[in-house]
Inverse folding.
């Protein structure tokens, strides 16, 4: 999981670089907050008024500035009277004054209320009339201030990562099953445990899906991956027959392409096969250890295969324990440090996760237009996880601030080199692309959050 969500324009601004801390008005703005409502821990609304005195002063200043830039017949450059500018360029002047005053007023109001805006403020009911104050309403999401506590000494699970004999044996069996041969069965009908070589054709009678054909598919009769209805109709069938049945899929827990739909299946059984597992010996172990392109390593045999399996299983168990420990400290952190997640950040995180999902589906060859995905439903389902990720990010970011954690250019480049190798690209190509897409600092922030989490994990203690 990336702890620094790709929040785009809706991303939170860290306290040290917030607009309100960067922008300081040259003089005190005559601004009045006429109402202020805390609609939620993260959403605030207020009504603002910019005095007529301030509007007039800003208009004069803008007119003088514009007069120095415009060129009009009969006037030397920079000598156009401000009053003429006000008449000839009234609309442009009005827009410039309004934009400048609203921007500066918002910065001042946010600073006065101690708000760290997330995303763009929403303006409403704006009134800018002649010889009158400017008034408007604004709704803004506020990034909550997080003061992390009790993040040292958290309890995490600990367990042995040494593979047991049973786990090694199970891994060997999976390898053996993957190298099974399939022999034709000709003297009896199909039974559970057999494999049927079939052509599958699916039709959506209601027309709410895309009909499909899957030729020459090997299905296990009675297998966990085979539709129970298909197993029932192929059981006791003989090669050459075609069976038909209808499957009504539930709304939940299935591929969205089939959820809540009925499919009429036509399945032609071409042949019945039984799986024959090979016996383990040094020759089979040597075949397993031989790379697709290359020769078997010296001394390849059952002893080496077992040793390699132990190392592989050890890595898997260490990774699983690491993930379990990570989840445990995050659970504990959130329990000890309640955090409010701004809706703008959550929405941006949901958008990011759905975009990644869409790219994955497209990479698998799915036509997203034809699939008729219920994106609204997917958004609802993705929201709880997005809320949690935002809370985790805010909390870990606060820990990084408290511990003054940073990521040097050397650390950033080392990570980019690792990423480049895994992508089959060069370091220069990857870095240039990230700079072009303005994603380089996003990678730095991800590393910073990862370092904060690593600190918490390092300070954790084994659970009793």
């Amino acid at each position: 999981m990336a702890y620094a969500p790709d929040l785009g324009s809706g991303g939170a601004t860290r306290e040290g670089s917030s607009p309100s801390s960067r922008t300081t008005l040259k003089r005190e703005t005559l601004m009045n907050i006429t109402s202020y409502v805390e609609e939620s821990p993260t959403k605030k609304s207020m009504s603002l008024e910019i005095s007529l005195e301030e509007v007039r002063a800003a208009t004069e200043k803008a007119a003088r500035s514009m007069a120095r830039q415009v060129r009009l017949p009969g006037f030397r450059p920079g000598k156009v009277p401000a009053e003429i500018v006000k008449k000839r360029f009234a609309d442009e002047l009005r827009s410039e004054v309004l934009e400048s005053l609203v921007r500066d007023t918002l910065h001042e109001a946010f600073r006065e209320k101690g708000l760290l805006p997330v995303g763009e403020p929403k303006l409403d009911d704006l009134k800018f009339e002649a010889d009158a104050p400017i008034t408007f309403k604004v709704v803004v999401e506020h990034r909550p201030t997080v003061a992390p506590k009790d993040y040292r000494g958290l309890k995490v699970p600990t367990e042995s990562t040494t593979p047991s004999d049973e786990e090694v044996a199970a891994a060997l069996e999976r390898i053996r099953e993957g190298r099974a041969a399939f022999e034709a069965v000709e003297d009896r009908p199909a039974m559970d445990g057999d494999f049927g070589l079939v052509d599958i054709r699916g039709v959506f009678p209601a027309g709410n899906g895309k009909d499909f054909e899957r030729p020459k598919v090997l299905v296990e009769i009675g297998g966990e991956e085979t539709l129970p209805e298909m197993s029932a109709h192929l059981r006791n069938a003989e090669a050459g027959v075609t069976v038909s049945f209808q499957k009504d899929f539930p709304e939940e827990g299935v591929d969205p392409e089939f959820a809540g739909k009925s499919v009429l299946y036509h399945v032609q059984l071409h042949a019945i096969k039984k799986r024959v597992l090979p016996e383990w010996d040094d020759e089979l172990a040597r075949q397993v250890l031989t790379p697709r392109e290359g020769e078997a390593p010296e001394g390849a045999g059952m002893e080496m295969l077992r040793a390699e399996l132990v190392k592989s299983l050890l890595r898997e168990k260490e990774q699983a324990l690491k993930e379990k420990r990570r989840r445990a400290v995050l659970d504990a952190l959130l329990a000890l440090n309640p955090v409010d997640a701004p809706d703008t950040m959550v929405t941006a995180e949901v958008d990011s996760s759905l975009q990644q999902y869409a790219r994955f589906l497209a990479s698998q060859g799915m036509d997203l237009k034809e699939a008729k995905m219920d994106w609204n439903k997917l958004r609802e389902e993705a929201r709880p996880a997005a809320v949690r990720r935002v809370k985790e990010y805010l909390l870990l970011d606060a820990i990084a601030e408290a511990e003054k954690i940073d990521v040097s250019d050397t650390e950033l480049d080392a990570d980019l080199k690792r990423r480049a190798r895994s992508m089959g690209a060069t370091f220069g190509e990857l870095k240039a692309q990230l700079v072009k897409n303005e994603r380089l600092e996003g990678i730095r922030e991800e590393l910073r959050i990862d370092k904060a989490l690593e600190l918490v994990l390092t300070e954790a203690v084994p659970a009793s």
Notes: The first strand starts at residue 31 and ends at 38.
